[in-house]
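Collaborator request, handled under Task 6.
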Amino acid sequence: MELQQKAIELLKKLIVTPSFSGEEDETAKHICNWFDDHKILFTRNDNNVWATNKHFDKNKPTILLNSHHDTVKPNSGYTNDPFEAKVEDGKLYGLGSNDAGGCLVSLIALFTHFYASENLKYNLLMAATAEEESSGPNGLNSLLKIIPPIEFAVVGEPTQMNLAIAEKGLLVIDAYAPGVSGHAAHTNTDNAIYNAMDDIQWIRNYSFSKVSEVLGPVKMSVTQINAGSQHNVVPASCHFVIDVRVNEHYSNQEVFEIINDHTKSELKARSFRLNSSSIPENHPIVQAGITLGRTTYGSPTLSDQASLSCPSLKLGPGDSTRSHQANEFIYLNEIEEGIDIYIKLFETIL
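Structure tokens returned to the collaborator:
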């Protein structure tokens, strides 16, 4: 299909153009050029590029199609040039090819396919966004106050075109256990490290009651700890970090309050906005995907879904296990199949 080949050529242009989070100006230009070439009206806000279908009707519900064009920085394990769009053995190599360039160009191809269609049941809104990898302030979250209201979203991330119907949220908490400073040779019953250990033991043993059928339980891990300045001084404070992966049955605020009620340390959440997201299994788009032979699952990895309050489905070509790895790649036939499945899926609901 000509559209598939054009999408692959766009991806090659994105790969050879560095687009680290916050530095996506040039890849945004490539996306703008695609829309210009296909006579699609679009808007650019910072490095976010978005467009609605030609016959947009404000009285109809709108589906958001979203993926990102920023990348992480290449790790030291690369033996290929991360900015060379090299094709070898059916694989397209390059930084961002899998996460999430293949998904992005496939969604753009889907949007282009339906752009001029009349009498659709839904509006379509395509948003190619920035700063996903850094959860920055100028990405999808900055568009939500500008774009029309969204009924539900399809977020392009590599899922092997299976249906990620739920995604865990992320809550990072800095905890500060207090104590009383003193000489280690003297009696001291208020040691900040021991006080932190009491809270850490509770965190290790506590189980949240609401367990997700798709995502499993809320998972808490203490990942960093720091206290003390020298061996003979009892510290007055112990700082530790709690990484919490939240299922769809809780908001981040609810989880924070439960932890705060059961611990003595002073807790400070770095952010509450990276909440869990989900879409009901009986939703028409999920059922359409199941009819096409796609399976459902829960995703442990975070995406721009965390910025959305509407139901959202994570779906895209590629494999999440390749993301952020050295010599990142996506199979060309994954992109071709991805576009085909996207189109068949939307033919069912539009």
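The cover message to the collaborator said: "The chain is about 30% helix and 25% strand. The first helix runs from residue 2 to 15. Please let us know whether this matches your experimental observations."
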